[in-house]
Amino acid sequence: MAALAGRREKVLVGPETADDAGVYALDERRALVATADFITPVCDDPRRFGRVAAANALSDVYAMGGEPLFALNLCCFPEEGIPDGVLGEVLVGATEKLGEAGAALLGGHSVRDPELKFGLAVVGEADPRRLLTNAGARPGDRLLLTKPLGTGVLVNAFKFDKIGEAELEPVLQEMERLNRAAALAALAHGAHGATDVTGFGLAGHALGMASASAAGIVIRFSELPVHSGFAELVARGVTTGCTAGNRRHVGNRLREVRALTAEERELLFDPQTSGGLLLAVPPASAAQLLEALRSSGHQAAAIGEVVAGEPRIEVR
User: Fold this and answer.
1) Of all helices (H) and strands (E), which one includes residue 267?
2) CA distance 90 to 143
3) Which of 145, 227, 231, 303 is least enclosed, having the fewest CB within 10 Å?
4) Which of 129, 150, 182 is the last residue of a domain?
5) pTM across the whole model
6) Model confidence over 194-238: pLDDT tens digits?
């Protein structure tokens, strides 16, 4: 369908590489970055849900090395069964996060939906000479991950009363964190490529980077940052509706050089909401970038490297 649309000469990043957002050139120094995303509630606090949903949508712009300019609300709201004031609080939370990002809210669109969903369409600006794309990883690059994994299982555990608000709190704090500081640090340290880790899980998004970059990716499992309680909840049977599909999507392109337990394998495919950035960074600047991320409060880690060869994920 994209091939049938107009102005293709202006498209710098289209759907071909399944990147985080599309990029449209304005001139040699300016490009627009466009994305849309919405999610179902991740907590009981409607304002906080709005903040997480906004951070999640804004992340796609940051993953491209851009800065958000403006956004439109995407409201899929039930007609009945929602207490007064809840939907307004969702919008207030999103506006708070847009304010933190320095982006304007221009309006939006609402539809009736039996299941509450909320998100944003976001347009940002980037320098086309400094884009971060999932096709930029190069053999020899180090891989950094800027947030812990495990949000899918922990959010579901909360929904089904397996954990309480105290256990979910650290997860919400990370989901609310904008990826702006991480993206700026990545650009400052010469990162070659990036993608944000969301619904397809770490393995799925890493495979997207590997495929777009025509390279392999090595993940060192012991280095992965993980939210507390994840393994115990998986051992108790908590999972998500997307995990099995994420595993099928990657298929035999995942190679377990190190045999994984069922709980460890679950982590690779756990769908993230407002997850961190997966950054491909030159070896010479990887340590400095990691220190910069940690100094700014990110629970970041060096988790592997990019290698030559066919697109694949190797877990060691």
Assistant:
1) helix 262-269
2) 35
3) 231
4) 129
5) 0.96
6) 999 999 999 999 999 999 999 999 999 999 999 999 999 999 999
